[in-house]
């Protein structure tokens, strides 16, 4: 049995800090064999940089995935190729720097990890996530024994549809981007684990990780404001996938939530 812990969008300093504080213990408690984390919001809530990538990998994250904020931090496009365990979305134009997948050994099981961006209500230029996922599975055939596919998308319908599209062909299809964990963890009929959104790792006393008052003000009067990362009710949110390597199917998917100790 392989246990895969997937961490939802790490948001700013609070998200990074709780990963540093709790991930090693959480990994032991859950018996996780590998940890994959989306960190596209890790730098002040938008993007990532080389220093942060190194720090997250040092805490015990095995693979870092990214999303539509992949290029928000200046200079990251020059740094990303230095990181062999970081992958940008696979359906970005081929001219983009960075790897479109990472393959990691999980107790002898070669797990390929890649992300596709949704296209519904998303602004970044990207190819079809469904056709890209098909192409990635074909491209990596023989190089990997299984595929963990992240769909970073706004529309729940697009995430759910990709889960059904890859049922029986992927270890799991896990959604990110909307920062709100969903209650639909399941193993699909052909054995693929699924969760529409793994939620965010960061401050939940917020609006999607940002301070409440500026966001509320923007909704009330439409005037522009700075949306700083909030600090209250910090949690790790993600999914734990139990995968039966011998039977080639997931047997369990569950939402994981860890709160920071009170007073922190």
Can you give keywords for this protein?
264 residues, eight-stranded mixed β-sheet, six-stranded mixed β-sheet, 6 helices
Topology:
Layout: E1 2-7, E2 9-10, H1 12-30, E3 34-38, H2 50-58, E4 63-65, H3 76-79, E5 86-87, E6 102-106, E7 109-117, H4 129-139, E8 146-152, H5 156-166, E9 172-176, E10 186-187, E11 193-195, E12 200-205, H6 212-221, E13 232-244, E14 249-259
Parallel strand pairs: 1-3, 2-12, 3-4, 4-5, 7-8, 8-9, 9-11
Antiparallel strand pairs: 1-13, 6-7, 10-11, 12-13, 13-14
Structural account:
- By secondary structure, the chain is of the alpha/beta class.
- The chain has a single domain, classed as 4-Layer Sandwich (Purple Acid Phosphatase, chain A, domain 2), CATH 3.60.21.10.
- It contains six helices and 14 strands.
- The protein has helices at 12-30, 50-58, 76-79, 129-139, 156-166, 212-221; strands spanning 2-7, 9-10, 34-38, 63-65, 86-87, 102-106, 109-117, 146-152, 172-176, 186-187, 193-195, 200-205, 232-244, 249-259.
- The strands form two sheets. Strands 1, 2, 3, 4, 5, 12, 13 and 14 form an eight-stranded mixed beta sheet that branches. A six-stranded mixed beta sheet has the order 6-7-8-9-11-10, covered by helices on one side.
- Strand 7 (109-117), helix 4 (129-139) and strand 8 (146-152) form a beta-alpha-beta unit.
- It starts with a strand and ends in a 5-residue tail after the last strand.
């Amino acid at each position: 049995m392989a246990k895969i812990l997937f961490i939802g969008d790490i948001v700013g300093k609070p998200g990074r800090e709780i990963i540093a504080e709790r991930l090693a213990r959480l990994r032991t408690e859950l018996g996780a064999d590998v940890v994959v984390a989306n960190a596209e919001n890790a730098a002040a809530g938008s993007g990532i940089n080389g220093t942060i990538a190194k720090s997250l990998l040092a805490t015990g994250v095995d693979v870092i995935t990214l999303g539509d904020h992949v290029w928000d931090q200046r200079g990251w496009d020059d740094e990303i190729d230095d990181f062999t365990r970081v992958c940008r979305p696979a359906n970005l134009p081929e001219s983009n720097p960075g790897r479109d997948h990472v393959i990691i050994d999980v107790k002898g099981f070669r797990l390929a990890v890649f992300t596709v961006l949704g296209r519904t209500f998303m602004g970044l230029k990207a190819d079809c996530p469904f056709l890209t996922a098909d192409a990635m599975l074909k491209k990596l055939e023989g190089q990997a024994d299984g595929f963990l596919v992240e769909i970073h998308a706004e529309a729940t319908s697009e995430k759910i549809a990709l889960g059904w599209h890859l049922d029986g062909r992927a270890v799991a299809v896990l959604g990110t981007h909307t920062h709100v964990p969903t209650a639909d963890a399941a193993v699909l009929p052909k054995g693929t684990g699924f969760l529409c959104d793994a939620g965010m790792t960061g401050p939940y006393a917020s609006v999607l990780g940002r301070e409440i008052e500026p966001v509320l003000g923007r909704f009330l009067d439409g005037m522009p404001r700075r949306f700083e990362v909030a600090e209250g009710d910090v949690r790790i949110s993600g999914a734990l996938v139990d995968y039966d390597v011998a039977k080639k199917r997931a047997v369990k998917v569950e939402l994981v939530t860890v709160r920071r100790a009170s007073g922190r």
